[in-house]
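Key result, reporting period 2: structure in, sequence out.
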């Protein structure tokens, strides 16, 4: 239980720090420069993390790979042995989180109508976690296989959904952006929720195929 709580708190902290940096920078710069500065900071940190991992001995846990791992949060989900993929994945994820923090401040979550932006950020977070989960599942598939190509199409669809909802928010259609970003995960959640309800109340021995 304590290990689970430690892992949960560590994960939340790693997610919160990039968003907090975006929030802080947004108080000094516009959203565009904020995202650029944050992306640069995360790219430098990812590069340093890769250097430390390269310098560390293979198969041995030392201070170098511990610090390198801290500079590359969640990178193992992207890497599969490639430091370049780890750096790109960690930089992209943290930049998205910093962008959410910047939008939360510059977009005025606490202002009238800011509740729509808050819901939109939650939808983006769910979509982003779904992308991470699918990337993790892809480790068992080759790119070019039917399963791998199917997962790539889902990832592309989610990225288009996030981009389209961001454009809608930029032009003042935030609630429509919430619908675009939140409807896919809501439909998937409703489907699995209904399936589990039928499984639990309909009986375990019934055929569902």
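The corresponding designed sequence is given below.
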């Amino acid at each position: 239980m304590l290990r689970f709580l430690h892992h949960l708190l560590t994960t939340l902290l790693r997610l919160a720090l990039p968003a907090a940096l975006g929030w802080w920078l947004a108080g000094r710069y516009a959203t565009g420069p904020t995202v650029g500065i944050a992306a640069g900071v995360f790219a430098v940190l990812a590069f340093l993390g890769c250097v430390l991992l390269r310098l560390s001995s293979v198969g041995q846990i030392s201070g170098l790979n511990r610090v390198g791992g801290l500079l590359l949060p969640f990178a193992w989900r992207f890497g599969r042995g490639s430091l370049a993929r780890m750096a790109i994945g960690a930089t992209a994820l943290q930049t998205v989180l910093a962008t959410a923090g910047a939008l939360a401040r510059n977009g005025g979550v606490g202002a009238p109508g800011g509740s729509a932006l808050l819901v939109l950020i939650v939808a983006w977070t769910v979509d982003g976690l779904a992308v991470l989960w699918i990337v993790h599942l892809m480790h068992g598939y080759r790119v070019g296989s039917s399963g791998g190509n199917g997962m790539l199409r889902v990832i592309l669809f989610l990225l288009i959904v996030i981009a389209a909802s961001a454009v809608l928010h930029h032009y003042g259609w935030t609630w429509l952006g919430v619908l675009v970003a939140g409807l896919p995960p809501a439909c998937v959640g409703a489907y699995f929720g209904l399936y589990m309800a039928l499984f639990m109340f309909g009986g375990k021995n019934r055929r569902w195929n």
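Helices lie at 2-26, 31-55, 63-71, 76-79, 83-106, 114-137, 146-170, 174-202. Residues 111-209 form one domain. This case is discussed further under Risks and Mitigation.
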